[in-house]
Amino acid sequence: GINGKEYPTQMLPLRFVFLQEKRVLRKAGNVDDVEIIAERLNIDPLALPNLFRFVDKYGLGWARNLRITEEPSDNGETSRSLRGDVRGTKPGLWFPVLSGTEQTFVLIELALSLARFSAQLVPTMLLLDGGIWHFETNLLAELATHLSSPAYPFQTVIVMANEPKGLANLRWAGWQVAK
Fold first, then answer.
1. What gap in Å lies between CA 90 and CA 58, rounded to an integer?
2. Beta 124-128 vs 155-158: how paired, if at all?
3. Residue 29: what pLDDT?
């Protein structure tokens, strides 16, 4: 921690927050959610719960009340599971039962919160290469609008394999498109 407080990451002179494309989509009970999500965000698994309060306070509202519970796994051991209230779903659902888009909501919320926290201390760039390619136009526009606001004081690069519908609206909002 810093000054006796626990934070989600160690601060370096420059920080890249990178949400990897690999989508989770796994069957319940096979792998520890904390390990998978920490790997996608390239953070220490012990730091992941420290992000939850930042998601609730500064997030987009796509995921709230994130928490870790211990569940018995298929092999008889205990694994850590992420639960939360995700937009468009029943509250408290278990991460593995969420759809790919809903899992992406959670991962983006965590990545945005990590980048926002980091940007308070060091220059930060957010690289989103995680599942956004299948977002509908309105979700992509909502994300782009939020990321364009001063509340998110970091640079963002969104990697997409295909040109999304509504790209003209994103360009107009100040986004640059590189092919």
1. 22
2. parallel
3. 47
Tell me the residue type at 166.
Answer: G
What amino acid occupies position 147?
L
Place of tokens 């930060």: 124
Per-residue H/E/C for the chain: CECCECCCCCCCCCEEEEECCCCCCCCCCCCCHHHHHHHHHCCCHHHHHHHHHHHHHHCCCCEEEEEEEEEECCCCCEEEEEEEEECCCCCCEEHHHCCHHHHHHHHHHHHHHHHHHHHCCCCEEEEECCCHHHCCHHHHHHHHHHHCCCCCCCEEEECCCCCCCCHHHHHHCCCCCCC
Scanning the structure block, which residue is given the tokens 């927050």?
A: 17
Given this model, what pLDDT does residue 47 score?
93
Q: Per residue of the chain (179 residues), give pLDDT as tens.
A: 566 777 776 656 788 898 876 655 555 445 688 988 998 888 999 999 999 999 999 889 999 999 999 877 677 788 888 999 999 999 999 888 898 889 889 999 999 999 999 999 889 999 988 667 667 778 888 888 888 888 899 999 888 777 766 666 666 667 777 76
Strand 63-72 relative to strand 78-86: parallel, antiparallel, unpaired? antiparallel
The residues, ordered by sequence, that sit 6+ positions from 64 with a Cβ below 8 Å of its Cβ are 55, 56, 84, 85
Give the pairing type, strands 78-86 and 93-94. antiparallel
